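Exercise: predict the fold of this chain.
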Amino acid sequence: MIKRIKGVITLLICLIIFPLSVNAASGSISITGTSQAVIGNTVTITVKLSSSTKIGSWDMDLNYDKNYLQLISATSEAGGISMVNSSSGITSKSYTFKFKTLKKGSTKVSMASYQAFAYDDMSEMSLSAGSKTIKIMTQEELEATYSKDNDLKSLSVEGFELNEEFSKDVTNYTVTVPEDTKEVTIKATKNDSTATVSGDGTFEVTQGTNTFEIVVRAQNGAEKTYTLTVEVKDSNPINVTIDGKDLTVVKIKEYLPAANAYQETTVKINEFDIPAYKNDYTNILLVGLKDSEGNINLYIYNQETNKYSIYNEIKGSNLTIYPKETDKILEGYEKGKITINEIEYDAFYVTKSSRFVVIYGINIETGEEGFFTYDKDSQSIIKYDDEIINKLTKQNKLYSYIIIGFSAILVLMFIILLCTRKKKKKKVKNEEKLETKNIEIKKEDKKNEIIELTEKNNEEETYDILEKKSKKKKNKK
């Protein structure tokens, strides 16, 4: 508010010092930003004052419907809808306003008031102002407005012709190129400006079939795939079938994938000198085979049987091995499978959750054949050390014997303890019985004493009576 008052004062001073004469200068106010928005999202509106002549000062207010929009932030001088300032002479000034959309409907952002003055003579400029309409809708309604067009407008291979004229409704095309062609450039034009295209550009090709996919994604997310097959001529292809898969022998050295620890060589196949790799340690001969999609992989070629088998190697930080099948067993290990880089190999492990597994193979750098330890976490390989394993096995056996002995001692001590408790209980019972018997004996003795005493008293009384009677008889005489 203070800044706006200062701006107005500046304008008044300028008007006093430089009275208006004619509206010589002109300018425009543009309002640009988002045209469609989802309820609850943020929209950005930019207000730009511009002129072909220098602008000295301006005073503008933005207008919007608070039922539809809530102002979140603004780069105006006071942080609100008012734009008031002066300059040392500029030709344009922009302000940014961010709003949150509140409800469904159509609303307009425009200028409530505006005026500007030329820098040179402070004459009032003639201004024209635009507005911006924003359509606020639900997410479903917005997505319904998205374009569904996922067609190509054109498809071609630079320097070559397709097998048939292009049509947006036909999705499969073929082009044939000379056998010395190393790369092709695919050009694809989308039918709708809001769509996106992937799969066009320049690509390497090899002899035989090369397949490329061009994907068109419409604004609403719908995808359409065009398939382009580039046939590089091969006058005498060498075709092989492995596990029901049709493959072609690669005749050009540059097309072969790299092979670590192998030397370049050639091998005769069907009277052709075929580029190959050979390892003197393993005596493995590798050639390239290409599938119908143009993917090239290395295969082991057996010259004696004219057979092919897929070549896979496990590469670690220190060494690389070629895994082989074996009938050998490892004591304390269970035989199973492990998947490395999506390829399954035979392996030996203590438990399936073990970090380390043992794989049988050949070190292609030294030719050493045997067991190797593979670390699943670090994906490293080292030579399998059976001395350490044997030492650990012996230690485990020793620990087992110690545990068994200690367990036997505990059982024996437990038995002794039980026997001791039983003896104590028996002794207590015997003592209780003896004590009971003694009590009974004492009771019997006391009873006998009572009987004897009673009998003695009776005898004494009888004697006294007889003695008295005897005395009476004597007295009478």
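Check your answer against the key: The first strand starts at residue 26 and ends at 33.
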